[in-house]
């Protein structure tokens, strides 16, 4: 099976490609049949496409029908393998239930007869330019597909050449980043150092770091589910049980960080990545550019973070003589986040994109926290109580992560949360860690990955310090 075609090589052209002008807003790409060189399936944005044996007249139908006994009724949906017979991406078995992000030129093979090439509708025309890119490309193929973009960094899809494992690569422009007006409180060196010290199922792992004169390349686990903010925007407020599982995982990550005297300082839905855009996914905390280690006796004093989720004491830190702040600033951010994902509204403003700092501070300090029935009908008193306790103005009185884990909202479903965590998070962590461990064997990064699933006693012993409730 050939690997991904070179990006500058001519792919098989299609006789039935979508109309570029008419369909540019709705089409993500299409599959080209390598036998006929014709488009056989158009993939639309925000719409799954099923490949399988079911015909359109069946109760469960397929968008692309392949009539062969070894093809499952619902063999795969773009981009998740649903079959027991196997779907191959660039020669590698995806595995039932596993997801990948397709890139321009990717090869998809279903059994032996059916071979397709994926063509990306909006393939990037300009390649990333780095005179020393050869150092990076010896080990990785950096693809033009951009997963995210910031002021002085972007995140692209990458493939580890030896293992064919898909990764996300955060590419930092060191020159633009080094300018004080651009840094915004972030510290890329500190981000890497912190991520290399933490090892937790709900924190994004660093796989490799390569530095050139101009750029820093941070290779991270690739997550195909997008971020929590996108998930809420596309689906609306989360059902309370689904939100509770997201919050439970976030609390596990924060407990681990705070036990290590690390504050994230930029907790928000955009910085929580999902393994899949489905109910009850594994959630991973990412973007540690503003994270800092702190001493219990010394408060932090830098104003940083996203002000819609920023604690009042962080606002105050920019003013001379401000008292500073500690890890409970993360708890305020968590309270705002819970409010947002349960209601799709913000607790202190109706349009925080246009809100200025002074106005936001005034609304926070007005103590006017309300739960309008229009958005909060049907949401439990226990959920509202937890939010109120996390949004207490005085950081000394505000609930900590430990307090939140002991809240009635969490405790009344503690057994279910532990069971769901074992089934969803722990199992996925073991599988993904195996893939990343294969990459680590070919890098100089020394991130620790779990070797095998331990016994229940080992889970309790090793995870007790992480705050993961792995007991029966």
Description:
The chain folds into three domains: 20-120, Tumour Suppressor Smad4, CATH 2.60.200; 133-221, 2-Layer Sandwich (Phosphorylase Kinase, domain 1), CATH 3.30.200.20; 228-412, Transferase(Phosphotransferase) domain 1 (Transferase(Phosphotransferase), domain 1). It is 31% helix and 19% strand. The chain contains 16 helices and 19 strands. It has helices at 20-23, 133-137, 174-178, 180-183, 188-197, 228-235, 240-259, 312-316, 328-343, 357-365, 373-376, 381-390, 401-405, 408-411, 414-440, 456-464; strands at residues 27-33, 38-44, 50-52, 64-65, 76-77, 80-81, 87-89, 92-93, 107-110, 114-120, 140-149, 153-160, 166-173, 206-211, 215-221, 262-263, 272-274, 283-285, 292-293. The strands form five sheets. The protein has a six-stranded antiparallel β-sheet, with no helix packed on it. Strands 11-12-13-15-14 form a five-stranded antiparallel β-sheet, with helices on both faces. It starts with 19 loop residues before the first helix and ends in an 8-residue tail after the last helix. Residues 1-17, 57-61, 296-305 and 445-472 have low confidence and may be disordered.
């Amino acid at each position: 099976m050939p690997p991904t075609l070179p990006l500058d090589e001519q792919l098989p052209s299609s006789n039935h490609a979508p109309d570029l002008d008419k369909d540019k807003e709705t089409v993500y790409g299409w599959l080209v049949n390598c036998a006929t060189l014709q488009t056989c399936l158009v993939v639309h944005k925000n719409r799954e496409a099923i490949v399988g044996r079911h015909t359109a007249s069946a109760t469960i139908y397929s968008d692309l029908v392949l009539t062969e006994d070894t093809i499952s009724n619902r063999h795969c949906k773009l981009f998740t393998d649903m079959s027991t017979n196997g779907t191959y991406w660039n020669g590698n078995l995806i595995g039932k239930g596993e997801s990948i992000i397709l890139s321009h030129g990717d090869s998809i093979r279903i059994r032996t007869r059916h071979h397709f090439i994926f063509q990306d509708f909006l393939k990037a025309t300009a390649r990333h330019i780095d005179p020393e890119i050869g150092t990076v490309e010896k080990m990785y193929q950096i693809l033009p597909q951009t997963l995210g973009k910031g002021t002085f960094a972007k995140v692209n899809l990458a493939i580890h050449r030896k293992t064919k494992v898909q990764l996300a690569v955060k590419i930092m422009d060191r020159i633009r980043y080094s300018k004080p007006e651009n840094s915004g409180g972030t510290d890329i060196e500190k981000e890497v150092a912190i991520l290399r010290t933490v090892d937790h199922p709900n924190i994004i792992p660093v796989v490799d770091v390569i530095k050139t004169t101009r750029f820093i390349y941070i290779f991270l686990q690739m997550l195909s589910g997008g971020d929590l903010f996108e998930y809420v925007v596309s689906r609306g407020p989360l059902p309370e049980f689904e939100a509770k599982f997201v919050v439970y995982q976030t609390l596990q990550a924060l407990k681990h960080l705070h036990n290590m005297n690390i504050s994230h300082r930029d907790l928000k839905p955009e910085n929580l990545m999902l393994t899949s855009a489905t109910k009850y996914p594994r959630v991973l905390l990412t973007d540690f550019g503003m994270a800092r280690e702190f001493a219990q006796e010394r408060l932090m004093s830098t104003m940083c973070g996203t002000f819609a989720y920023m604690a009042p004491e962080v606002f105050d830190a920019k003013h001379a003589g401000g008292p500073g702040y500690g890890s409970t600033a993360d708890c305020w951010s968590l309270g705002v986040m819970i409010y947002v994902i349960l209601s799709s509204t913000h607790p202190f403003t109706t349009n925080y994109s246009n809100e200025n700092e002074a106005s936001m501070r005034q609304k926070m300090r007005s103590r006017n926290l309300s739960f309008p029935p229009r958005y909060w009908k049907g949401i439990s008193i226990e959920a509202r109580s937890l939010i109120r306790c996390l949004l207490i103005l005085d950081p000394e009185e505000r609930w900590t992560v430990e307090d939140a884990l002991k809240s009635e909202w969490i405790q009344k479903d503690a057994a279910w949360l532990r069971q769901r965590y074992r089934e969803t998070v722990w199992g996925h962590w073991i599988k993904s860690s195996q893939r990343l461990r294969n990459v680590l064997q070919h890098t100089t990064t020394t991130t620790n990955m779990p070797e095998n699933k331990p016994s229940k006693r080992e889970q309790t012993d090793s995870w007790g310090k992480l705050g993961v409730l792995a007991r029966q």
